[in-house]
Amino acid sequence: MSLGSIFDIAGSGMTAQSLRLNTTASNIANAETASSSTEETYRARKPVFAAIQQAMLNPSQQQAFGSEEGPGAGVQVEGIVESDAELQMRYQPDHPAANEEGYVFYPNVNVVEEMADMMSSSRGFQMNVDIMNSAKSMMQRILTLGQQ
Question: Domain spans of the chain?
């Protein structure tokens, strides 16, 4: 693995954390949206990630490691799944979205959990930025080695 591939790995991590942050923001924004049926109610969404293997990025390179998969080379988004947790059903007969029985359905979004997820993804993004800055600094120092 070269020093230059660090930028690819950290960049894919930043992309993944950005998507995670966007889905979390969407969940929080829709946390209190009311609906009259379970089919129309917003459901919390979570991204699913998978590791990208080095062999997939550079199939022409020989494996330096003995294993079939080789070292990781980043992260990719496999998809976004909806939560299958139970929706919140509240009795509010005066609500405009209440069904004929007086119940209103709210999303299965736990705002406290989403805020913790938002902080985690924000810190993960920042960590990848720090990795890129460190790699850049190391590359700049390498360039100055022959100047003495």
Answer: 5-31+45-82+110-147, 34-40+84-108
